[in-house]
# Entry
Amino acid sequence: MRRTLLLALAVGLTACADQQPKRETGPVDNMPLSLIPQPAQLQRTPGRFRLDATATITVTPGDTAAKHVAAQLQSWVRQARGITLAIVEGKPKSGGISLATSAAIKGREAYTLDVDGKGVRIAANDETGLFYGAVTYWQLLTDPAAQGGVPGVHIVDAPRFEWRGLMLDSSRHFQSVSEIEHLLDQMAMHKLNTFHWHLTDDQGWRLQIDKYPKLTETGACRKAIGPDVALTGGEDKPYCGFYTQDEAKQIVAYAAERHITVVPEIEMPGHAQAAVASYPKLGNGKKLAVSGDWGVNTALFNTDDATFVVMQDVLDEVMAIFPSTYIHVGGDEAAKDEWEHSKAVQAKMKSLGITDEEKMQGWFVARIGDYLDKHGRRLIGWDEILDGKVPATATVMSWRGTRGAIKAANAGHDVVMAPSPTLYLDQLQSTLPDEPPGRPSGQTLKTLYDFEPVPSDIAPDKADHVLGEQVTLFTEYQPNWYRIQHAIFPRIAAVAERTWSPKADWNSFIARLPAQMSRYRAAGIVPADSVYAVAIATEAAADDKARVTLSTQSGYGTIRYTTDGSAPTAQSTAYSAPFDVALPTTVRANAFAGGFGLAGPRDRAIDAKSLLHRSSDELDTCGDKLVLRLEAANAVDGVRPVYKVDIMNTCWVWKGVRLDGRYGVDVTVDRLPYNYALWKDTAGIVSRKARSAAGEIEVHQDTCDGPKLSTIPLAPAKDGRATLQGILPKREGTHDLCFVVTGKPGPKLWVIGDIQLR
# Structure
């Protein structure tokens, strides 16, 4: 039904647009426009409107919605152009901007926008549509193509999906109110309309609940571990933070001004350790600490009636703060160990005729859903809620791939697409060595952009149950606003286009993105430039030379490079194929389009020593159980090193090493806290027999079970960062070298930072 509505809406908007004043005739400027998301319909028309300080924003007398949006547009123009346009009531005047609501334009969030030599006209059925029309005009105004005035356009626009969202986890790491408001500003300028706020988890309860003050007195603080020590100032200082109800209301109001709905998430029955640490009676009665471990902790809410009273009281206060239709109750990764061993839970299951713990979770969620239904709200949860009976009105957020969404939609439930790893922003965007810590699964900007929100396995008559999609940022590895920006921008632009625009066009999107990157920087945002950045790969060549290969993710623009140490420019040598350089040389490179650099230049110093060196980023892991890029707690020369490691299999492979005789080997190691709750996956941790308490690094030839070439004791590292030395026996030819750490990870973890052959 929703798609039929959009089709009718487009036809209706076109008919309405035909009633606009007669358009100009003459030549049309076809210079590409950098609008993101791309409007549903865009036609280039004659004319060009140059804005100056004499222009006004005109609204119809008594049109409060138009007047409200006019004030917002006035602020944006002042920031972009340094001029303050007067807002006047009356009939539209030539040479200005007019905003008007019109019942002739059907559909919430829809609008029309016309620009010609006489001015700008924005019309919509409601304030939200006017707001999005104003956003589109602001994008035109800040487009490089508009330096001589905004070119003529006729835009008829409406979104493809009603749920266009972003989830932010404030439980693992806490963000300030001003940082969240900055994020909401950017969501609005991308026409995203849903802010899913993850407020509770094992690692922190972040929302003040008046009736249960210990939820924040106890649940909002945890022991600082690893890199968090740098945030608190010492291991003896806990990591704390929560939002007062007034602060949460401030964020809700700020979002509403930008036509964004805040959907709060209160996790249940799992991811409950912060709550249970605050009130042990909510769990199995045992006293716990707020978790400092990432992963799947096993604390669960119990199923007593008294616990439901507490949860209902909490939801009462949540609903008083958040007016959203939806309340998110989590439901994911609820380890059932405690329920399996609880006589009380087992007795309750028997009395209810429930045969297993998964169905018991369904009963738990359904009871909460019924409570929300009675209060005029709707339950939304992660796709595990499908494992039991849930209310027919429940909406499913599919994170374990798309399987849950397909099952839910075909069963008649509304769904929101949020599959991991594709739409998870804690997944790193590239293999560049300057990527921050996180999950190196290779989810590039194109991977996200190419995701189709409506899987083909959903029956055609059920496809309208797909409300839309959202990107999700869990923040184990985003401890500050800088890291959050890197994770979100520019990927927010990709999800905006895929949820708004009716058609995907990657080549067009990547060409429109540079202007958007400039808008980010003007707004004080530091976006990731991974999609345009140049990767520099080297290998040994004949006659004391190295072969250099340059590449970018997108292939957009022209790669240009220098070998004399100077910064690359639009006039530097264009890269066409791998090339050889004499040693030593420093290669610097960037991609260019339209005479401008698309990213920060990257460089690499190349000499004989560097060709026999690999960082952990340049090594392969020996599998893909749970690979992470982790940072050290302590800085080295002012920077905390970052290490790639499979935390379930401490093993690295240097592929294709050209050996020619006997080599010394220097291995830099470090010792990190092993703060991971792996639940049943603990059984998959690889353990290797160690000869000593500290363990060793073993170097094997060709495979990790191949001939052992060297054993390097870890004891000299003294449980910290050090460079250890070993000897490799004489070998000839090209071989893989496998470096394994003996022993078993936990409670600390040995990692390899760098390997240097001598």
User: Anything to note?
Assistant: Residues 64-81 form the longest helix (18 residues). Residues 345 and 458 are 36 Å apart (CA to CA). The chain is about 25% helix and 30% strand. The radius of gyration is 29 Å.
